[in-house]
Amino acid sequence: MNFGILILYGLLGILALAALSRMDGTFHRGLRRAVEQLAVLAPRMVCALTAAGFIARLIPSELIGQYLGSEAGLKAVLLATAVGLIIPAGPVIAFAIAAIFARSGASTAALIAFITSWSLFAAHRVFIYEIPLLGASFLRLRVVSVAVTPVLAGLMALAWAGLVGGK
C-alpha cells in the first residue's frame, strides 16, 4: 500500500475519533451525509469510468504517447492545454481521461497542463455558469488573468523533470 494512502487513512481515523468524542450526533450526521453522497456519486462514477474506457479505445495509445509523451516537450504541453480547454465534463471524467493519458505514455508535464487547463477553463462551466450568471466581461477578465497558467505549469513540470531525470 502507498505511504500517502496510509497517512490519509490515519488522518481519517483521527477525524472519526474526534467526531465520535463529541457525542452530539455530529459523527452520525456526517456518516449519513457520506452515505448519501456515495449513493449519488457511485452511479455517476460507474458511467464516467465506462465513458473514459470508451475514450481509451477510441484514441490509440501510440498517438497519445507520440503527441503527449516526454519526447514531445513543449508541443505536448501546448496540445494538452488545448485538450483541457475542450473537455466538457466534470472531474470524474476529466481525471479518468488523465489516467488514460498517463497509462498511454503521456508525460507528467502534459498531464499537469491538461488538468490545469481543464480546471481553469472547463467548457461546460464557462457556458453553463460563467457567461449566463457573471457575464462575458467577467469571463474575459478571468481568462486574461490566468491564460498562461496551464502552459507555465506544464513548463515548470518539464523543467522539474529535466532536473530530477523524470518523465
Provide an overview of this structure.
The structure is a single chain. By secondary structure, the protein is mainly α. The protein has two domains: 1-58; 60-167, no CATH class. Helix content is 84%, strand content 0%. The protein is built from nine helices and no strands. Helix 2 (26-58) packs across helix 5 (91-103), helix 5 (91-103) runs antiparallel to helix 6 (108-121) and helix 7 (123-134) packs across helix 8. The two termini are 23 Å apart.
How would you describe the shape? globular
Distance between the termini: 23 Å
The proportion of residues in beta strands is: under 5%
Radius of gyration (Å): 20 Å
Give the tally of β-strands: 0
Oligomer: single chain
What helical percentage do the residues reach? over 70%
What are the secondary-structure elements, in order, as H or E?
Answer: HHHHHHHHH
Average residue-wise pLDDT: 86
Task: Point out poorly predicted stretches.
Answer: none
Question: Based on helices, strands and strand pairing, what is the structural class?
Answer: mainly alpha
Largest sheet: none
Number of helices: 9
**How many domain regions?**
2
Throw out a few tags for this protein:
mainly alpha; 2 domains; 9 helices; globular; 167 residues; 0% strand
